[in-house]
Structure of Glycine amidinotransferase:
Amino acid sequence: MIEHGTTTGESATRPIRVNSWNGWDPLRHVIVGRADKAVVQAPEPAVRRDFPDDGFPLGTYGPMPAEMTAEANEQLDDFAEMLRERGIRVDRPTPVDFNQKVSTPDWEQETMSGCMPPRDILLTVGNEVLEATMSYRSRWHEYLAYRPILQELFQSDERMRWEAAPKPRLTDASYHTDFWDTYNDLPTDVQLAKVRDYDLVLTEEEPLFDAADVARFGKDLFVQLSFVTNRSGYQWLKRHYPDHRVHAVTSTNTHPLHIDATWVPLRPGLVLHCGERLADQELMDFFKLNDWEIIEAVQPASWDHPPKLSYCSPWLAGNMLNLDQNTLCIEEKEVRLSEQLAAYGFEIVPVPFRAVGPFGGGLHCATVDIERDGDCQDYFPRRHGRY
């Protein structure tokens, strides 16, 4: 059974409708993840977890500690309830046993991962929800946690398009299998050159992308090339959305992984970027040409990094959720960021969420928009360079 909770008011009676073109129109329906049964992933070609100070040195894996899971779930549940109290319909995934061996005819993997960050798996563009390919073997089967929700959406909204990108084979040919043997020991300038040239862990054997590497700005979609999204994945998305302008962007971050903490749309004409991960100059020029103001986020003020068993950057502070053009949910301890954005006229909703980070991200990662008011708009009428 899908958990909707005790939503009251308009959202309890309005028909289910899939519709979301950006990240700032008024939010009506959302998925919020769960921490249940999450694990520290077993090693695989694309990712290696190494937490020697927390009891999980490289090569070890297994369930996340029970007390961490309980605390994360408490914060996720409270967040979901706060959204319901604001009249927003909330769905939750159905966890499976992530601490089990999974396989395809091509490979076996000792564990799965979890279902806290639905933003990684699902991409809503208009009336379509798209299941991403994923590039970790441990996340190949993660879509199963969301299938009950997608089935209900499909049955409830006759306009809803339910799509799944081609499931990848993820053989060794999809990876530079020796990448992690040397990458972290390279000088920063060499790492940045590899990011710029897209010489990273994924090959171009097949299209690969995470949904969280796509930033939605109405008619324009910006796809970050990263550790989990390759050029072939970008090309697949470009062909899949022929009525959109789909742009590939690179980062100046040595470890690019998901765009939603580095290039964050706030409302039409305003975007936040991570000061440590500047966008390339051509992208910044393109936004400025179209009269967008670019805010450089303040340094994360209170992120005790690295938290136990967390692979997230302190810049997860910028991973926030818009309830509408004027209202932002921000992790409660990020006071400096809240003050910075309040000066731009935003109402800030502080949300306790620090315990959720080790399970895969922040407030944006933990959610997927299903319905927002509004339609597809063109926010970039002036073209520039390759954009």
